[in-house]
Amino acid sequence: MKFIINLVFLFLGFIVISAQQNFKIQGKVIDFHDKVPLKNAIITIGNLTANSDDSGNFSFSSVKKGTYQLTASHPDCETFSESITVDRNLELTLNLEHHISEIETVTLHGNHKSRDALVIKTLDRTQISRNSTENLGNLLSGISGVGALKTGNSIAKPIIHGLYGSRISILNNGVKMAEQEWGVEHAPNIDVANFEHIDVIKGASALKYGSDAVGGVVLLIPETFKKIDTLKGAVNLSGISNGRGIGVDLNVVKTWESGWALKTNGAYKKLGDLQTPDYGLMNTGMNFSSFGFAVQNNSFLRGISFDYSLTNQEIGIFRGSHIGNLEDFYNVLQSDVPLYQRDFSYSIDNPKQEIQHHLAKISAYKRFEKFGKASFDYSFQYNHRKEFDLRRGELSEIPSLDLELFTNQITFSDLIERQNWDLETGIDFIYQYNYSTPETQARRLIPNYTKYSGGVYSVFKYRINPKINVESSLRYDITKYSVKKWYDESDWTNLYANDFQEFYEKTEGNRVFTKPELDFRNFSLSAGIEYHPSEKLNLKLNYAKVSRTPNIAELFADGLHHSASVLELGNMRLKNETGNQLNLNIASKISVLNGLEISANPYLFLTENFINQIPTGIQNTIRGVFPVWSYVQINARMYGFDLDANLKINENFTYNGRFSYVNGQDLTNNQPLILMMQPNFSNSLEFSKKEWKNFYIKAENQTFLQQKRFPVYNPVITIFENGVEVEKVLDLSTPPPAYSLWSLQTGLDFSRHFSAGLKVTNLFDKNYRDYLNRLRFFSDETGRNFILNLKYNF
Questions:
Q1: Where does 17-97 sit in CATH, by number?
Q2: First to last CA, the chain
Q3: What is the mean pLDDT of the chain?
Q4: What are the residues whose beta carbons fall under 8 Å from the beta carbon of 745, sequence distance 6 or more?
Q5: How many angstroms separate the CA atoms of 524 and 456, rounded?
């Protein structure tokens, strides 16, 4: 009996010991960065497998004591693997990182963000590739509400809702371009072929990029590389008929599975004199070259990169825009042909521009489980601009304007992402120094100055429910200018001596040397809401209260701006621009044929102390006759409407249409604002068929109506006509007539590696003049142009 009892206790002890060797494991699988539970994750421990439920929970009821390899996998995430020791009940939290394919879409690219109330339009890789020979200003003109302020055809600055210059921020791979952007003929130094896509944020709501971007932001975004071992690249050759030009660009990318990537790219473009339908445009050739280099090692958790780019441009300024006397100036405005002409030439003579721009950037980021993604960026930019005027003798080799701009930028930011909210905070600093060499032997249009600026911002986004997202932004900026400026004694005495005596340093002859110190403070805010009631309707409403600091030219420009062919006068009394802006975007999908998408964007901008540059007279100088443009401040109102439509007619045919209208009013003087984009619309029809080697053909018509709303600034001049002194009115105000242009574009892939494309602009060789071209007084726009692209991918 005793033996049986001992046997029973031994058996029970064995059961207890055995039970103690089996443990329960339970846990939860969540996304690393926003803590969202992940369902359908597969978790394995040894030979045991479990799936996470809708709340991300999983459990194993009986796991024997021991050491196991735990793995967790999810279709959208990197597989997690770790060795665990099971000697007790365990409760685990598994943080899975986004898979690299997800990282490639959740980048700075605004259209890929789901919780965003910003009004964003995008040019994708296909659109950029088809138009790689265009400059940035002309390329962006394909977006509704975006135009280009031109000086001839080779120089174009983007305009968004009627605003341009320093009111538009251009970010090259996250770095705010620091150039002499104040000039109307200072085009961005950008090689557009180097980017994967370009986003245009309309309006002033993107405060993280700066409070001065009251018109909008242009984001130039390069390719994000996959973590694979490969070598790839492309060579693109272009032939351009108008200007008898050639272009070539090359890029090579080497990537490794470890996350390292190395990229280099270069481009060259050369054009001779451009042609209108009836005559050549003397001295309108250009030379462009660029080089870029990047090395990086990026993963979801951390990354570091170094980027460098260089652009060189030599741009001829139309010789017919520089006129020697009042009689010739008046006659040119009445004539249909330029005063100066020559046979076709690749020679670039004075007047011309030479611009060199260097950009170097170091970036690093790291994700912390609780504190979000911390990022650091440092960039250095060097911009060297030379402008050559028509001068005699040895002076012809010396630029009339020689500016060197050195810019250092540092940015720290932190992004916390959670299931229902995001919070991004950041601080940035800019130190900028501009040197205007006295060796030009000409009056310095822009003085030597040092600029210090700092800003702090915060952007909060909250998802109320799956249909409603809200966001708000705050930003505070401080800017200080330290300037060294010479004035004519009469100008200083009449304009500034009484109120700015503390800036006076000395008088030499009839010139006064001053050292102005100006401080500006700006507070800006924005609030937006996105309502997405269904897959077929999306509404975005955004309000922004903005404040912008005057730029250096608006404050201190003083002299002949040679390549713009105008005399510019700044105003040291200028104050901050302040304003209120509303943007509404309504996007709808309608079941018509194979699908119709419509987007409407009405907007309103009311601003006080709006800085406006207007013509205030004509001045006859030793270098010729030039209009005088002065900076003034007014109260202004701008409102407008953009409309986009995309109709998929069937599997092969697609229709695209867009319309833009902007109304600008000078409320102070009760007259229209100058240089507002005229009403315009475009319609295109594209046929494409993948089975035919990705063949496509696209016909497009663009129509620009005559601008009926314009201010009148027509100076009266005195000239001699048939030996008699007479007064004449110079019409510098009336916009040119409406015009309509056709273009045709086609292309196909001959093989997996080789493709070709052909584009014809101004198909019917139409004569026209563009209201937003500052040289419209002197010549027609360019005529028909054939552009052939041959591309080899490897």
A1: 2.60.40.10
A2: 87
A3: 89
A4: 130, 696, 697, 698, 700, 757, 758, 759, 760
A5: 11
> Which of 159, 134, 430 has its CA nearest to residue 288?
134
Summarize pLDDT for 498-546 with one digit per residue, the tens.
999 999 999 999 999 999 999 999 999 999 999 999 999 999 999 999 9
| 217-793 matches 102-216 in CATH topology | no
User: Among 639, 739, 788, 617, which residue's Cα sits nearest to residue 240?
Assistant: 788
- Pair 311, 356: CB distance under 8 Å: yes
Q: CA 295, CA 275: separation in Å to the nearest integer? A: 42
Q: What's at 609, amino acid-wise?
A: N
**Which residues neighbour 69 within 8 Å (Cβ) at sequence distance 6 or greater?**
45, 46, 81, 82, 83, 84
Q: Residue 302: count other Cβ atoms within 10 Å of its Cβ.
A: 14
CATH superfamily of 217-793: TonB-dependent receptor, beta-barrel domain (2.40.170.20)
pLDDT tens digit sequence for 588-642? 999 999 999 999 999 999 999 999 998 887 777 666 677 788 999 999 999 999 9
Cβ within 8 Å of residue 595, ≥6 positions away: 589, 647, 648
Distances (CA, A) of 185 to 172, 310, 314, 356: 20, 20, 13, 15
Helix (H) or strand (E) holding 139: helix 136-140
Q: Give the containing element (helix H, strand E) for 327.
A: helix 326-334
CA dihedral 119, 123, 124, 126 (to 10 degrees): 160
Q: Other C-beta atoms within 10 Å of 186: how many?
A: 23
Report d(CA 352, CA 368) in Å as an integer: 52
The Cα 773–Cα 282 span in angstroms is: 17
Structure tokens at 259: 């996350």
| CA 544 – CA 528 distance, rounded (Å) | 9
Q: Which residue has the tokens 């509303």?
A: 582
400-423 per-residue burial string, b: 16 or more CB within 10 A, e: under 16:
bbbbbbbbebebebbbbbeeebbe
Q: Give the residue from 472, 495, 641 showing the smallest Cα distance to 569.
A: 495
Question: Using 50, 70 and 90 to split pLDDT, how confident is the model at 362?
Answer: very high
Amino acid 28 reads K
Helix (H, G, I), strand (E, B) or coil at 332: helix
In the DSSP assignment, the letter for residue 494 is I
Distance CA 260, CA 306 (A): 12
Structure tokens at 759: 């584009």
Query: What local confidence, expressed as pLDDT, does residue 114 receive?
Result: 44
Name the phi and psi angles at 785, rounded to 5: -140, 125
Tell me if the bond preceding 351 is cis, omega within 30° of 0: yes
CB 637 within 8 A of CB 672: no
- Range 102-216: architecture per CATH: Beta Complex (2.170)
> Taking the mean position of all CA atoms in its chain, how far away is CA 162?
16
- DSSP 8-state code for residue 56: S
Structure tokens at 246: 């050639």
Alpha-carbon distance values, 300 to 29, 31, 106, 124 (Å): 17, 12, 11, 24
- Rounded CA-CA distance 416/428 in Å is 18
Asked if 280 contacts 343 with a C-beta cutoff of 8 angstroms, the reply is yes
Q: Please name the residues in contact with 367: beta carbons below 8 A apart, sequence gap of 6 or more.
A: 32, 33, 300, 301, 302, 373, 374
The residue ranges of every structural domain in the chain are 17-97, 102-216, 217-793
